[in-house]
């Protein structure tokens, strides 16, 4: 996994609460068997006027000009400002894959849905929870000045606003460690092979019916 | 020391390793796999040269993409007309073959929606940990199992290690007290709960559903309630084990037998929250207050009882709610309407992992029996949750009741719940749906979903608009 340490980038404000994963990447794009290529269909229904299809070029599709990512001033944004309960709904990891493929590195919101939040960390994306007032301030600053950049520092757990205001955020230490070092957590878990085997042995003794073959 | 909740007990019995930073390694007893969220996980295994830790802990079936019409289903995977869907289903078949995982493929009568198939086969058992790359995995919590949805990276992690890195959730109890009114179902209960606590109300919690209103539900009803825990933000929904649970599991193909059965039943007696268990949050709802529910907007929390007026954006005080309601009103085309009876329906969908089990089909059939679907409707489809549900329904003659009333009787799959196959809404069409999400575009581009119970969907199919099913059946 690509590590995440520090990132400074153009911020785009998505001023909508309860953005669900169906909005982030609609179902017709989940038919892919790859992890890449979802960026052009990120927020497909919010971004384009027509219904998108898998494997279709998006270059000539009619854009919804009022959508934030279609505004020229936010072209190339890599930090997404969002509202409460971002990423609710389906567990599809295609949502963080689409954000990543588009070029988003960090999402800042007052709250996230659990599964989406967790999925981000597996893909080198940093979701950051800040107080609603702090998020409001970031929205206001980004709106006020074209080209406004936000600085995200995972090591020190801080977000710096375009005007220089610093906000601290909380992150689980294990997730932070994995993200800073770009660690594959399957490899880490497999280092605990002996503990897993020990657990299985004990469990097999206590609850043998859980270990029967399913071939029937 | 305070007693333990059911969630605490399940967590403790699956703890492989507790870490100082608060995270833990949890053992997974069962992983269900389907075609949409597994291909990248299998590919990851292949690239790293890894093998599944324990193949007998996985069970797979295609469900999201499978067509539901007879002519497409007759030749199995070869009959899928959409080439992209076909590749995904074929990929699941190939991966299961390559890695030695049991799969109920499209030609197997046991094929169906993963969350219907697992319990039906007795693969889902009380006291287990169950995961699947699908948020509605919370369904299996109805068995006193710790079950939740995961992303594809975690699907790969569980395949490779049989474990998950997790942080413990907080405990919430939602108690439903008292007897439910006639024609008020599990679906109405869970929609009313989501209406009360909101779509983020359960975020960070494992919700245990309890009280007499829950205990009186069948296993099918309990699965419907736990299924939608995620719609209240909780990854985990749970219901304590009782005789209803054990009766349901008994004699299922994968359920333990003989001596193992006796051992298991003895162990399952403990799968209840202790009397002195402490919950971080308790919500109490009175059964008598729950009427048949219908969602009016684009989030499951935008729900009202059938006799209520649609809430207006201008009456909301909270600015976020005001804006959300305004957006939903526009998307749903509600201008000029005051109640949901004013909405003319285009389609009706009875199915999905929420409501496609035999009990759901029986109640829908009871409502439509001897009646005819409204002529204004473009389509009404009934999609059983599995091949075995379909066979049982046909044995009972339910398909004939549906077809005589003008509803289409389909082959099993996720179908119009998320429209990954050909079953979808057209732009602007209103649908009475027994599924779980009414998000923008969920059932088709521009489609307008109203979530209801099977009885309410059936009554709406006949009337052509929403009616109170408890009144409707009197005429």
TrEMBL record, chain A:
It catalyses: (2R,3S)-3-isopropylmalate = (2S)-2-isopropylmalate. Pathway: Amino-acid biosynthesis; L-leucine biosynthesis; L-leucine from 3-methyl-2-oxobutanoate: step 2/4. CDD domains: IPMI_Swivel. The keyword Amino-acid biosynthesis applies. Residues 1-132 form the Aconitase A/isopropylmalate dehydratase small subunit swivel domain. One of its GO terms (biological process) is L-leucine biosynthetic process. The keyword tRNA processing does not apply. Pfam families: Aconitase_C. It is an enzyme of class 4 (lyase). Transmembrane segments: none annotated. Gene3D superfamilies: Aconitase, domain 4. GO terms for molecular function: 3-isopropylmalate dehydratase activity. Keywords: Amino-acid biosynthesis, Branched-chain amino acid biosynthesis, Leucine biosynthesis, Lyase. Belongs to the LeuD family. LeuD type 1 subfamily. Catalyzes the isomerization between 2-isopropylmalate and 3-isopropylmalate, via the formation of 2-isopropylmaleate. This is 3-isopropylmalate dehydratase small subunit. The lineage of its organism: Bacteria, Pseudomonadati, Pseudomonadota, Gammaproteobacteria, Oceanospirillales. The gene is leuD.
UniProtKB/TrEMBL annotation, chain B:
Residues 8-464 form the Aconitase/3-isopropylmalate dehydratase large subunit alpha/beta/alpha domain. GO terms for biological process: L-leucine biosynthetic process. Its EC number is 4.2.1.33. Binds 1 [4Fe-4S] cluster per subunit. It is an enzyme of class 4 (lyase). GO terms for molecular function: 3-isopropylmalate dehydratase activity; 4 iron, 4 sulfur cluster binding; metal ion binding. InterPro entries: 3-IsopropMal_deHydase_lsu, Acnase/IPM_dHydase_lsu_aba_1/3, Acoase/IPM_deHydtase_lsu_aba, Aconitase_4Fe-4S_BS, Aconitase_4Fe-4S_dom, IPM_dehydratase_rel_enz, IPMI_cat. The keyword Iron applies. Pathway: Amino-acid biosynthesis; L-leucine biosynthesis; L-leucine from 3-methyl-2-oxobutanoate: step 2/4. It comes from the Bacteria. CDD domains: IPMI. It catalyses: (2R,3S)-3-isopropylmalate = (2S)-2-isopropylmalate. The keyword 4Fe-4S applies. Its cofactor is [4Fe-4S] cluster. Keywords: 4Fe-4S, Amino-acid biosynthesis, Branched-chain amino acid biosynthesis, Iron, Iron-sulfur, Leucine biosynthesis, Lyase, Metal-binding. [4Fe-4S] cluster binds at residues 353, 414, 417. Heterodimer of LeuC and LeuD. NCBIfam families: leuC, PRK05478.1, PRK12466.1. Belongs to the aconitase/IPM isomerase family. LeuC type 1 subfamily. Catalyzes the isomerization between 2-isopropylmalate and 3-isopropylmalate, via the formation of 2-isopropylmaleate. This is 3-isopropylmalate dehydratase large subunit. It comes from Marinomonas aquiplantarum.
